Hints:
Helices cover 0% and strands 55% of the residues. It is an all-beta fold.
Amino acid sequence: QVQLVESGGGSVQAGGSLTLSCAASGDTHCQNNMGWYRQAPGEGREFVSNIDHDSSTTYRDSVKGRFLISRDDAKRTVYLQMNNLKPEDTAIYYCTSIQCGIWGQGTQVTVSS
């Protein structure tokens, strides 16, 4: 089993930046395909980005050009660099092992206008 712990959330003004981190521990089995999802108040959880073992990436359209996902396998950590943040990016951000269906506890990102 793998455990995922997110950090780096916070409150910023529109146009600001944050970098989220997702640190994994336990079984190394489940880290090939890692992703970030988010859930805004009153909304369902939505895909943000993922990064595969070969560092190929995918993004939802609304964050393309603003968010950058990366991984450091030596540190067992996945990052989500978020630039030019908008109020509609406000949500709880969750890290997930897509291949194993394991989720972190989430970290809050709040963007004020």
